[in-house]
Structures are given as C-alpha cells and as structure tokens.
Amino acid sequence: MCGIIGYCGPRRAAPLLIEGLRRMEYRGYDSAGICLGAPGGLALIKTAGKVKALAEKVPADLEGNCGIGHTRWATHGLVNEQNAHPHTDIQKRFALVHNGIIENYLSLKQELQAEGFVFQSETDSEVLVALLTGLYRGDLEKAVKEALGRVEGTYGLACLCIDEPGLIVGARNGSPLVVGIGDGEMFLASDYNAMIAHTRQVVYCEDGEVITLTASGFRTTDLANRRIEKSIDHIDGTGAEAEKAGFPTFMEKEICEQPESVDRAMRGRLSRETGSAVLGGLNMSARELRSVGRIRILSAGTSYYAALAACYMIESLARIPSTAELASEVRYANPLVEPDTLFFVISQSGETADTLFALRELKRKGARVLGVCNVVGSTIAREADGGIYIHAGPEIAVASTKAFTSTLTAFLLFALSMARSRDLSLKAGLALIDELSAVPGKIQSLLDRRQDLDLLAQKYLWAGNFLYLGRGINYPLALEGALKLKEISYIHAEGTSSAEMKHGPIALINESFPTVMILPQDSLRGKNISNLKEIKARQGKVIALATAGDEEISSLADDVFFIPPAEELLNPLLAAVPLQLFAYYLARRLGRNVDQPRNLAKSVTVE
Length: 607
Ligand code: G6P
Description:
The chain is α/β, with parallel strands linked by helices. It has 19 helices and 27 strands. Strand 16 and strand 17 (276-277) form a beta hairpin.
C-alpha cells in the first residue's frame, strides 16, 4: 500500500527511483512522483496514473544524486497530481513521502492553517510537511522526531530538506521500511524488491525507529534520540523472479507456476520414514505441539479463505477444534487468549496492517502466534513466534493465486504432522504423502487444458453476476472463486455454501444469473447434486467443476470442467486452479488490467 523509495549515492537518482517504483507498483498505482535535491533546488515531478506516466514526464538529463519517490494508493483525497506524493511546502524546502494514515490530521491541519501554513493537497500526509516547516532549526532528523511526537497513526516515511543536501530521514511506525546498503550508495524503501538489483544487504527498520541516511551510511535512533544498533540481513534471489518471463501478465505466470510453487511448499518437509511432515520453523517442541487444544487462524482477503480451508484440514486430520477469523475483527474484539490455544496469522505479504495489528494484540496478551507468510523477512514473519514460510516466490499480480495454493499446502503439512502426533496411523500418513506428492502433476494437467477455460469464459462473457457454490472444504473455494472474479473482472460474484443457497441466494437465480459449482466426487456429492437440480429447476445455468470420470454431472450441468480425482482434503488445491483461470480469462476478454485491478493494492498496510 504505497511504495516508498529513497536513494543517496554517486549515481543519478531519478532512473533508480523510477526503477524502484516500478518494482513496487503492486503496492499502489494510482499516482506517482519523485523529488530530488537538484542543483537549483528541489526538483519535484508528479503525476496521476502509473509509474510509466511518471517516467515519461521525467527529463532524461535530470540531475540530482539524492531523492525520494512514491507510488500511491489513495486513502485521503482524490487521485490527482496534487494529492500525489512527494509533498512539499510552497517554498519547496522540504519534501516528504508517506505510507500509512495520520489519524489526527484534521485537528493538526486546522491548527497549522491557523498558523498560516498553506496546504496544497487533501492528504493527511501533508500535515507532516507543515509540521517540519515549523519545527526545523537546521537539523532535519531532530525536526522529524519532534513532528512525529505530535502525530497519531501509522507511517513509513522518507523526507528531504534543501538545506541538508545528500541526506534522507526516514521513520517507521506500522508501515514497512527497509534500508539497502550498496557500494558507496544507500537505499531506503518500503520493500526490498525495489533495490534488489543494486544490493542484497538490507536492514529492516522496526516501529519507533528513525533512519538518517547519506551515501556513506546510516544511523538508527528512536524518537528519544537513543542510538539503536541494527544487524544486516542478506536477501536471496535476483529479482528476475519478479519478471513476466514471456507471459502476457504476472497473474497468468503465477497461476502457471503452481505445479512448482506447491512442490516448493512441500520440498524437504515430507518424511516417508515417519509418514509425517517436518516443519522446523514452528519453534515448538513435540510436547508443546501435543498440548495444543485449539487453533485459531487470523487473516484477510484470500488468506482468510485459505484459513477457512485450513480449519477443515486440521479438524478432520488432527481432530483439533479450529476456527478461521478475520484479523480486522479479532483485533478490536478484546480476544480471549486461552492457554492451550495456538494462534496462526496468514499473510502472503507479511505486511497486512489488519493482520499485523491483530498479531501484536494477541502477543501483548501472551498468546503464542505463528505466521504463515510468503515474503521472507516481512514484518509478520519477523514478529511471529515461529511459523511456516510457503516459499511461493514473489507474487506480483494483485489477485493472489499461487500464494493461496501454497498456503493450503503448508496447512496440509501442518495438519499431517499434528495428526501423526495424535491418532493418524503411519499407513494413513504415508497415503497422504503419496497424494500430496501427486498434486503438482495434477495441477500441470489442469494447466495443460487451460484453453478450455478460456472458451468457457468466452461463452459466459454476457453474464453480469455469478453465484459460486461449494460445500465442506470446497465452501471456502466458492468464496475464493467469487473473490477472484470480482477483483479482476469487476463482475459481481458472491460465494456461499451450496447448502445455504436455499436460505436466500436462490432468490437471485434465473436464466441470466449463472452458478459455478465446485462439485467433486466427495462425501457431499449427492447433496450438491440436489442443489444443482434446484438451480436447473429455476432455469439457472450451471458450470460445474467435477471429478474426471463423473459423467453424470455432464448430463446435469450446462458446462463441466473436470479436475483429476484426489483425496477429499486435497480437492481445493486442484479446484483453485480452474477458478483462477476462469476469472482470469473473463477479465482479459473484458479488457481489464488483471495485474493491477482498479482500487485494489497487493499489500494493504493501512487499517
Ligand atoms: C489485499 C490483496 C488481497 C490479499 C489481502 C491479504 O486485499 O488485494 O489479494 O488476499 O490483501 O493479503 P496478505 O498479504 O495478508 O495475504
């Protein structure tokens, strides 16, 4: 949610800032801007629209070796050039980029206006610039600390002052910030991907820290001016994973990577010797795991739907009562922390504010909270007591796909290990390992038939609404299928349990309101077929995802896409893929920007 980048060094800053913003555009993409300490003063260039539009506006010969940049996801104020960051004062002495929300900005703004400060935007962020102008006495770091002492809310920020060329001051409270240490140059960004082409040496900033950066180094202090020693982390990867690799979109690439990403989530973690899974990152002894009496999983968006499915897996395999909850709700519900409850938070990005703040609230109450994250070194991954990395590789498209199936895989492994330490037999454990090992190949076989889903999408291009139905462990899949469709195609879709349809959604059904039914050959097949017939009796069209060989479904549904047979708990790993592809092809055929759908952001670091 908003990308921030800063650079100090010997090179021209502008192209480096633009490149960094491009790599962070998934965080927000409604407007962008940069500001550099150039020879004649601060050079400010902003635009509504994407980073590409900004790049076109930036002169190729723009001088300046120290600068800041921003790509925005609007919170306060319309999407336009004025509200784009960086923000400066009228005299252009200070420039600032901000990610987060200043909650007391209205009262501060009124106060600062009364003192004569002229605001140029509708943003909450601009009050920080106004505070700096009033507090600055020749020391930007000091002024930033004083200004932050007056604001309530969350921030990741970076700022410059014309009187202190070559210096950037950054600060973090609730929104990520990472320092990159280059060779004679320094970076500051909200995501290390922004600088991965230039350095692998990074330092993660924590809440309450202020970073003062020049080309030759950085120092970290707290708001009370105490020095903080930081350790340097090394980032793996080349950044090449974040390229499209010949695919027309990141989303298609990421959908097609799933045979490999699911395999990576399992690699080195399955033991045929014990018929179990080995998850070293949980940081819990066998005895501690054995004494878990309840599991609660908190998350948001697609990760929440993964959590719902995970509960089925854990309850059914390990027989431990499990619930999935929205992190945003738990945080403010004064959550009960019982001694035998193990909490999980799921977050692909590891930065989602709702999930992070719920984690902190639980930890404050003494809960043990494990994280299931994709981004290594992300805030949630670092603050959790332990967890499982899903190792899906960078997910750039805003709509989550491979992270979803990798998270499901991680929870299958967790459920297996918990079950094996309880009453699942070695034989049953080994059978599940065999089934799991076959999943990547089965996903590949689905991808090989993806043109059929494109044809299906073409056939249903006329539809303005869709209902998605599933039951049991496929109920969360119905929710996820509907979410994928609305996120990227803007077609209204709602998901529910097949059984719940008769309690309301059936009122929507007619010949122009098609239903996507996840209808594998499982223990609930008969019930699902009854629901399918109820839809047909009302002239509703049905697209079914059925198990290969289940020919009866072909005679009942209008269209069928077959998925390979699998053990019931593994069905979601297979059903997810055609649901993603159906949404993808519909959106593409409607001409949507599937990688950067309107109004959304990949990583939502505000509440
Ligand atoms: C945003 C994204 C969703 C994502 C959700 C949770 O809303 O647009 O695709 O599922 O955040 O993200 P997380 O990184 O916490 O899994």
